[in-house]
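Q: What does the predicted 3D structure of Flavoprotein look like?
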Amino acid sequence: MTTPVLYLFGSAAPPVLDVAKVIEDAQERGFDVCLGLTPTAARWLDGRLPALAALTGHPVRSEYKTPGEPDVWPKADVIAVAPATFNTVNSWALGLTHDFVTGVVAEGVGKDIPILTMPCVNAAYVRHRQFERSVGELREMGVEVLYGEGGFVPNEPGRSRPEKYPWGLVLDTAERLVGSRGD
């Protein structure tokens, strides 16, 4: 059996700062991890990007490759988008592929790659009508959205608890999705 490849994509929300530990946990579970970040998340982790690339054994990506440039990552067996911000969730659901992360996951849906996401948004953002529409749209596309009961539950603005972000649920779900493929 080959090692399953997990594309771990993070947006600029406080839990992304713990991504090294998440990568280590995923590797302990048997995943080959490729890390992709939104441009803002990449800025947040800028000084740590070389260490994260060394940890994964793959370049950390936050930009599209140029035409003709070879792909430096193996093909994904599963994609996890976590933490997914308000912007990432809405852009993805609307098909707005202005950055690498949303472009890959939008295409991944069409390629039938198992995809999961766990938002990290505050309660003020989820009151915006588009957020629930976007969550529903992603679910209709077959994306497993870990939001609400049994997933991420938003906090009030200013009451961030990144240490409580349920990363284990993300990895548990990735394992289940890879196992359910039966490849």
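A (community wiki): The structure tokens above were generated from the sequence. The first strand starts at residue 5 and ends at 10. The mean pLDDT is 94.
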